[in-house]
Amino acid sequence: MFKFVKGNLESIDGVAVYPIIGLLIFFLFFVGLFLWVVTAKKSHIEEVSNIPLEDDTININQN
Question: Which Pfam family, giving just one, matches this sequence (predicted)?
Answer without folding.
Answer: FixQ
